[in-house]
Amino acid sequence: MTRNLLTVLWAGLLASVSMVGISPVFAQTPALPKGVESEFETEEGAVVKVFSAEQDGHRFVAYLVKWKDFEVIVSDPLARSDFQAGDSIQFMAQKVRLPNVSTLNFVLLSAPAEVERKGAEAAVSPAERKRMMDLVGGDLDAARNETERFYALNRAAKNALKDGKTEEARKLAEELLRRAQTQREDWNYGNAIQDGNQVLGRLALATGDIAEAKKRLLASVDSQGSPQMNSFGPNMQLAKELLAANEKQVVLEYFDLCRKFWKLGVDRLDAWTEAVENGETPDFGASLDY
Question: Does residue 153 sit in the same domain as residue 124?
Answer without folding.
Answer: no
